[in-house]
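Supplementary Methods. Inverse-folding protocol.

Structures were first reduced to a discrete structure-token string of length 369. This string, shown here, constituted the complete conditioning input.
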């Protein structure tokens, strides 16, 4: 999170850095205006989000706009929605090989690259939004993330957070653990591994493909984000039962990944601007999701007759057991082991604090009107 003084400071650095790029005029030449005389740079950002998707798609657009605003337009970032330049799940490779400069997406989409990546988005029964920010910014997470993504030639920064997500949309009710057997569900990352441990089948689908899969019966259930985004994609029209809580994503952190060559080509002040832009949007989206999820949950329940449900006790218990095993198996050696150990250490510390702060407070607040 940043304050106004830091933001102004970062902008000032950008102006100072940009001023150093003035070209020296030749004899007799007319001096150019500052906006024309300074060097401009343009970058492409690919995303894993459908075009115009509230919250997620707009977060990418906001990062780009803030970078432009803080550099007086000297650095321009053009955003491409999923499929416009590359397919959504190819965003990582596009940035790694230099065919795109940046991506905005969820790190657990790259699990096939390394089992360490999901820890930087969300893992089942893991960290809330505030906790993952605490770990990455103050608990050693960013240094480990730099080491992991650096192996692929990428520099990553937190660039949005959805807050707590929902458990998903189901075509049929889940009454016991037996109903999870054979369930075909769109759910990525370690959440998908937990589902498989319960006897279900995890299906990998990009956001723009989920509705049709529900409509045709190709899947029985799907998780996406929460009421705000889920409402905009219309899942309630095909699956009437909305389950929570979202055991798999208690606070999903999203990332801006930047090609390492591009990152290294930036001046120190330009790098500070990129970080400040991402941090501002990370803060902004968490507040926006918190408010808009509240608004759209009310719409779903009171205007669209969505049936709210909680997972049965035996399902939650088995999920919790499987989640611990899945997290541990992801960190067996190398940098992945150090990521897992750092994550678990910070989770244990912050879980203790949450137990005497937020958790107790929410229970007490519910007793009021």
């Amino acid at each position: 999170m940043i304050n106004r003084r830091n933001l102004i400071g970062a902008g000032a650095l950008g102006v100072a850095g940009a001023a150093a790029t003035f070209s020296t005029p030749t004899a007799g030449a007319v001096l150019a205006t500052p906006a024309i005389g300074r060097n401009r740079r343009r970058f492409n950002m690919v995303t894993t989000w459908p075009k115009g998707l509230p919250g997620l798609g707009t977060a990418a657009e906001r990062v780009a706009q803030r970078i432009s605003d803080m550099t007086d337009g000297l650095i321009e970032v053009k955003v491409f929605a999923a499929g416009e330049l590359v397919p959504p799940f190819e965003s990582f490779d596009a940035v790694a090989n230099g065919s795109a400069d940046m991506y905005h997406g969820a790190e657990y989409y790259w699990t096939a690259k390394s089992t360490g990546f999901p820890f930087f988005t969300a893992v089942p029964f893991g960290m809330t939004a505030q906790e993952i920010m605490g770990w990455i910014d103050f608990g050693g997470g960013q240094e480990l993330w730099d080491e992991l993504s650096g192996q692929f030639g990428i520099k990553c920064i937190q660039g949005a957070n959805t807050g707590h997500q929902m458990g998903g949309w189901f075509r049929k009710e889940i009454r016991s653990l037996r109903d999870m057997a054979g369930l075909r569900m769109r759910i990525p990352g370690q959440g998908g591994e937990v589902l498989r441990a319960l006897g279900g089948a995890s299906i990998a689908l990009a956001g723009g493909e989920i509705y049709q899969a529900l409509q045709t019966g190709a899947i029985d259930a799907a998780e996406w984000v929460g009421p705000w985004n889920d409402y905009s994609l219309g899942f309630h029209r095909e699956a009437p039962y909305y389950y929570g809580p979202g055991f798999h994503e208690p606070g999903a952190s999203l990332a801006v990944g930047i090609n390492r060559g591009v990152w290294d080509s930036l001046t120190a002040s330009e790098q500070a601007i990129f970080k400040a832009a991402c941090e501002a949007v990370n803060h902004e989206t968490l507040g926006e999701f918190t408010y808009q999820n509240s608004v759209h949950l009310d719409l779903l329940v009171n205007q669209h007759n969505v049936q709210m449900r909680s997972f049965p006790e035996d399902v939650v218990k088995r999920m919790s057991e499987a989640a611990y095993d899945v997290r541990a198996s992801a960190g067996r050696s190398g940098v992945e082991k150090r990521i897992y150990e750092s994550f678990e250490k910070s989770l244990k510390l912050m879980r203790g604090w949450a137990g005497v702060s937020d958790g107790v407070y929410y229970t007490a607040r519910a007793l009021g009107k």
